[in-house]
UniProtKB/TrEMBL annotation:
Provenance organism: Flavobacterium indicum (strain DSM 17447 / CIP 109464 / GPTSA100-9)
UniProt keyword annotations, A-Z: Cobalt, Coiled coil, Dipeptidase, Hydrolase, Metal-binding, Metalloprotease, Protease, Zinc
Protein's name in the database: Cytosol non-specific dipeptidase
Keyword Protease applies: yes
Coiled coil: 278-305
Family: Belongs to the peptidase M20C family.
GO cellular component: cytosol
GO MF annotation list: metal ion binding; metallodipeptidase activity
């Protein structure tokens, strides 16, 4: 199926994407893709190095006649989000992505595609390999671990790069030019409890929430999508209040930067309440489905008999857990007062794990305003601490402050209008881009972000537009020819 993708135009771009997607590259496990990139640069005879955290830098001199232009840094991240459908059998640690063409889209079979940020990586690879594309001196920067902490960008030291302009190829709408982004912080709550035996004369049940769209916890947070952890907690809260439901285990969500699509809970209910429990829960399910009828048409909530669990949470621990999860904010917290239709601050309750005497709740809080980011993080902390959790903040990274007077912005907006007959949308985004972090050690670098259209990033519905990739490739080539002189 990858051959079908390799035949697409521009072949230079799609072939490099296919090469890259044959290499497993989960976040935190980038050893194989780092080796792949080092070998790629060395085979081209270009200066190639790996820094102390694992970022790969490949330098290519300017083509003839372009020596007087400013050196540019072309940057994308090597890692990808790993999500798959529940019924898809796939090992991200050992298998390459299985791609296919669906009309104007390239998709993967039941998994994320890796177009985020693989198409950016492939673009840079194609340009490094080319011998007929005019360009200034290039420093290609391939960062690691963007998706789970941005530790590659954070670990990049000053002095390794000389470029004056950075082209970040990680924006997902081809009519947008990005000049700012949100920062983020992980908020993690943990607690312990003493398990107790299930009450006598109880029945075991398994509750499953699935079929949600999921998506990017920054770019998709304002789309009214369902959060599996919030939906599950609503079911458990109501059933505990009305029928004394006892929680044994909860497993919801997977990655902090993906809106959770699935949650599974094993519970016990007193046999005397069995019929009423089922009727009441079905009513709640219908209410939830009605609320999400527009945005989550494939939502499924399944209640089925299961083995009776041996151990459950004590009533007090369950009381505080369900209330804390109800209280904890999920979704948009504040819209920007400076940019139309831009989310300023949000939270994603990404992962909830309960069982064996342990509770763990993982959140990703984002904001383009640092003080607002920690205001929401502290609100979450308060909710979780009230239930007795220990709460930690980690992986904090800064946002990228917009510079509307950027020289490279003027170049891109002019070229876009000339090529397409319409103006590009100059925006800031609610996703986390590495520009803000890179700017801490390279404060004078002029930065911009753009890319081809990618939909459904961070979910198995991720897909890349073929026609958009063609438009974007032409745009990249024009940008390279029009980099300002030194």
């Amino acid at each position: 199926m990858s051959q079908e993708v390799r035949n697409l135009e521009p072949k230079a771009l799609w072939n490099k994407f296919a090469d890259l997607n044959a290499v497993p590259r989960p976040s935190k496990k980038e050893e194989r893709v780092i080796a792949f990139m080092l070998e790629f640069g060395q085979k081209l005879g270009l200066e190639t190095l790996k820094d102390e955290v694992g970022n790969v830098i490949i330098k290519k001199p300017a083509t003839a006649g372009m020596e007087n232009r400013k050196t540019i840094v072309m940057q994308s991240h090597l890692d990808m989000v790993h999500q798959k459908n529940n019924d898809t059998v796939f090992d991200f640690d050992t298998q390459g992505i299985e791609m296919y063409v669906d009309g104007d889209w390239v998709r993967a079979k039941g998994t994320t595609l890796g177009a985020d940020n693989g198409l950016g990586v492939a673009t840079i690879m194609a340009i490094l390999e080319s011998n007929d594309i005019p360009h200034p001196a290039i420093e290609a920067l391939f960062t690691i671990d963007e998706e789970t902490g941005m530790t590659g960008a954070m670990g990049l030291k000053g002095g390794l790069l000389e470029g004056q302009i950075l082209l970040n190829l990680d924006t997902e709408e081809d009519d947008e030019i990005d000049i700012g982004c949100a920062g983020g912080v992980d908020v993690t709550a943990v607690a312990e409890y003493d398990e107790e035996a299930v009450a006598d004369n109880s029945l075991g049940y398994k509750i499953t929430v699935k079929g949600l769209n999921g998506g990017h916890s920054g770019m998709d947070i304002d789309k009214g999508l369902g959060n599996a952890n919030k939906i599950m907690n609503r079911l458990l809260f109501n059933a505990y209040e009305d029928f004394g439901l006892q929680i044994s285990t909860i497993n919801g969500g997977s990655l902090r930067n993906a809106i959770p699509r699935e949650s599974v809970a094993h519970v016990a209910v007193a046999e005397m309440y069995d019929a009423a429990f089922n009727v009441d829960l079905q009513q709640t399910i219908e209410e939830i489905k009605k609320e999400f009828a527009t945005t989550e048409q494939n939502l499924q909530i399944i209640i089925e008999k299961a083995d009776l669990p041996a151990k459950v949470m004590p009533a007090a621990a369950q009381f505080f857990l369900t209330r804390a999860l109800y209280t904890a904010h999920n979704g948009v917290y504040r819209m920007s007062a400076d940019f139309d239709n831009l989310v300023e601050t949000s939270n994603n309750i990404a992962k909830v794990t309960v069982g064996g005497g342990n509770v763990r709740i993982e959140n990703l809080t984002r904001s383009s305003v640092e003080t607002s980011k920690f205001d929401l993080a502290n609100a979450l902390r308060a909710a979780y601490e009230l239930m007795g959790c220990e709460v930690t903040f980690s992986g904090s990274y800064p946002g990228w402050t917009p510079n509307p007077k950027s020289e490279i912005l003027d170049v891109l907006t002019s070229l876009y209008e000339k090529q397409n007959g319409s103006k590009a949308h100059v925006v800031a985004c609610h996703a986390g881009l590495e520009c803000g972090i890179l700017g801490t050690n390279y404060p004078g670098m002029d930065m911009i972000s753009f890319g081809p259209t990618i939909k459904g990033a961070h979910s198995p519905d991720e897909r890349a537009s073929i026609s958009s990739a063609q438009k974007y490739w032409k745009f990249v080539l024009e940008i390279l020819k029009n980099i300002p002189v030194k």
